[in-house]
Predict the structure.
Amino acid sequence: MQTIELTNKPKIVGSYSIVGPKEGKGPFGKYFDYVMKNDRLDEKTYEKTECKMLELAITGAFQNAGLLISHINLLLAGDLLNQIISSSYAARAFNMPFLGLFGACSTMAESLAVGAVLINGKNFKNVVCATGSHFSTAERQFRFPLELGNQRVPTSQWTVTASGASVISLNGVGPEITQITFGKVIDLGITDVNNMGAAMAPSAADTMSAHFFETNTKPEDYDLIVTGDLGKLGAEILIDLMEAKGYKLGKNYSDCGHSFYTRNQDTMCGGSGCGASASVLNSYIIKKLKTKQYKKVLFMPTGALMSTTASQQGESIPGVCHAIVLEAGGN
Amino acid sequence: MKNEKLNQAYNEYVEARIPKTKPFPSLFNAFWVGGLICLLGQGINDLIIYLFPMMSEQSAWAWTLVALIGIASFLTAVGVYDKIGKFAGGGSIVPITGFSNSITSPALEFKHEGVIYGTCVKMFSIAGPVIVTGIVSSVVVGIVYYIIGLI
């Protein structure tokens, strides 16, 4: 069994999202809590900016929950940079215990999963789960300098400048986390670092089918099934893979990365990065759950667990995907 | 757990699904922008010869290259060259201006890591392999040339 049931129903009582200017112009623009005027936030380096964005998201989330910093018992965060510096450095600003997580772009699900289990077990009262990414830090770590005059390949994706944070608690009101399916690492031998969607889609298919099987549900039972950053191609592949497993994904299936930008924002296959699923969850999805427009959402961000070193040594790209069931709660 | 057969089947399936770049527009844009850069180079060369009639042809070419490298470096610094590159692809990578861009862009990118460990170390991270290939192949050609001379 990969799926667990959270009987005490931890709730997301506070959430906050912050995005860069380009992301603010995308389809989710009006749902985000804060759209930055420039992509720097007056910081000297982009790494510092990413860290600052996480700080703002974390602060925003517990303020949104109506809590003080002293009420938060634990911070769970991760990001894409080596040694997850954005999260660890952001944690310096808060006087609270910290657990750093790495699940690449699946970090939002990983942090929510760990946080929800801890809250469900009543070991902690309030925990904050956060993650974020920045286009310019990811580019320099994984790809090329910003000013290099190269062309992006059609399968590439655009790392989003975004950060999101959620507060989980047993007390208060908000969408409930009712089930979690922990994902396995799946690698079907994709080595092209410009084709993350294809590398991660099999892990999403594996977790999704395990979830449907173990919870005895069908795609139609959810108002929204949303993956993290598979992008256009990855989402299409996932639909194919699921069909082969006997599940037909319909109009209620969507991908955060694929719908993150408008077509003329020129991002090829769409958005990617930890911030994609984190910011969409903590704005659009939670708002729709609060207004009960969505009653049951299957949130499943995917992560590509590769590093530049491993890729240069010819290793293929392993993927992971965790699924979180969010319910509007109430009656 | 690795399953070679499954991996191969999946890779083939993905390969078939990958959206392809349209060759005609990319080739056309690369062709005319690349041509324009060459025309600019020729123009600069003619201007130098016109302004300094005493200069040897070889020096005039050297100054032309310096001018092109300088212009491309400047355009990189002000954030224009990457836009040209996005549009023209190979058309702006192949001429010497692309070479200049590939050195200036990492130099700028890593300036926050310091002059030595940032700019100086990273400056040749993209152009380095090109320089190495150039030097190694010239050595090989030199040896071949020498051996042919002996025969």
User: Anything to note?
Assistant: The mean pLDDT of chain A is 95. The interface with chain B takes residues 44-45, 140, 144-155, 187-190, 195, 198, 202, 233, 236-237, 240, 316 of chain A (CB under 8 Å). Chain A has two domains: 3-169, 176-327.
